[in-house]
Design goal:
This protein is α+β, with helices and mostly antiparallel strands. It contains ten helices and 20 strands. The N and C termini lie far apart (91 Å).
């Protein structure tokens, strides 16, 4: 049995322990300050006898410390005294976010009767799943405010070790008990009370900011994303930088920024529509010019065009006449071949057989080729137009 020193001395950062035995890369000690993964919270990290920990898990009444390799573990012999050094920054981050989750869950339960169905703490993001699909912005804001009030109230966290479930059930537990004996009940009086064996902060003020950062539908539940303490501060710092940059870019302050962005977006949308109308009119004029050129096959370079514009021109041409076309653009170094349905012209084949120095392909009625050099592109365009004329 491993003595779980982390449960009693939650702020202890170093400890001397004795090696009980090793198994492969696993080390079992008589006591430990490293908390294993538990209920969605990842394990502590740090060093054991100078070796970095890879993972910490609980198996029966023992805590298994896994090192990077068997060679490292086998250097430790039963009875050896080893120094345990906790990665305190990671632990404190876990404790801030874990207790923050207790408080949020306690308030969601007591105020809105919503149950937390699953908790997960990642390296940058924490989540829990509520048994509802109807979580409103007002509810989120209300719970956030109440949670942060609990932080400002600096409520001492009460941790009680109870021998039996009967004793534990005398507490106003938020969740059903999963074990029958040796139960740790963690209470934030007036806010939350739940059985939990992770290490906790001694009072709520150390959590710092509690912030819900987003929600999403997850199965039949709502997944709530949150950040507490240093994570929440870093999040605020990053968002402050983003808002400052945007404010400068849009010449607005944080209160008028969204309105300003909306105005600019509306203006851009109007310009985009006008531009498209203009482009369509210009493509139609070009198409008219090409179909009335007195040739069987239209072959022309279109200045400054992209592939999309070439396509618009050929589409307009097809509405005016049944005429194969070879259009190219110096700007985009591309060639577009089109032919009416049922025409003997095979656009795709022409690209395959004639497009030297280019790559592309397509169907009998439409094909395209892209080139590295303008010269090769023009040579191909002329050859393709000549082949089209021959096949008619
Ligand atoms: Zn807990």
């Amino acid at each position: 049995m491993t003595e779980k020193t982390y449960q009693k001395e939650r702020y202890r950062k170093e400890l001397e322990a004795k090696v009980v035995r090793t198994e492969g890369a696993d080390v079992i000690l008589d006591r430990t300050i490293f908390a294993p993964d538990s209920g969605g919270q990842p394990w502590d990290l740090g060093t054991l006898g100078g070796y970095p920990l890879k993972s910490v898990t609980e198996k029966g009444d023992e805590i298994i410390h896994t090192l990077d390799s068997e060679a490292e573990a086998s250097a430790l012999k039963p009875g050896d005294s080893v120094k345990l050094v906790l990665d305190w920054q990671r632990r404190f981050d876990h404790m801030q976010n874990h207790l923050g989750e207790h408080i949020l869950s306690g308030i969601f339960k007591s105020v809105y009767n919503l149950d937390n169905k699953g908790f997960h703490l990642g390296d940058t993001d924490g989540t829990f799943d509520l048994d509802t699909l109807e979580l409103t912005d007002e509810m989120i804001r209300d719970v956030e405010n109440r949670a942060n009030q609990a932080v400002y109230d600096a409520i001492p966290v009460q941790v009680d070790l109870l021998r039996s479930a009967e004793d534990a059930r005398k507490y106003p537990l938020r969740k059903e008990l999963k074990v029958e004996e040796d139960i740790i009940v963690v209470s934030v009086p007036g806010v939350d009370c739940v059985a939990c064996c992770c290490p906790h902060l001694s009072d709520t003020s150390q959590i710092g900011i509690i912030k819900i950062t987003g929600t999403e539908k997850y199965k039949q539940l709502t997944r709530v994303h949150f950040k507490c303490g240093w994570r929440a501060l870093r999040d605020y710092q990053q968002k402050h930088v983003d808002v400052t940059v945007l404010s400068e870019r849009y010449s607005a302050d944080e209160f008028t920024l969204l309105d300003k962005i909306e105005k600019v977006e509306n203006k851009n949308e109007r310009i985009r529509r006008e531009y498209n109308d203009f482009k369509t009119a210009s493509a139609l004029a070009k198409a008219r010019e090409l179909v009335s050129g007195g040739t069987q096959v239209a072959c022309a370079g279109i200045e400054g065009a992209d592939m999309d514009y070439l396509r618009t021109i050929t589409k307009k041409m097809s509405e005016l006449a049944e005429m194969p076309a070879v259009l190219y653009s110096d700007a985009a170094l591309c060639v577009l071949l089109t032919a009416p349905e049922g025409s003997p012209v095979q656009c795709g084949k022409l690209v395959k057989t004639l497009a030297e120095g280019g790559r592309g392909g397509g169907s009998p009625t439409q094909a395209q080729a892209v080139f590295q050099e303008a010269e090769a592109m023009k040579t191909f365009a002329e050859k393709a137009a000549a082949a089209m004329r021959e096949s008619l």
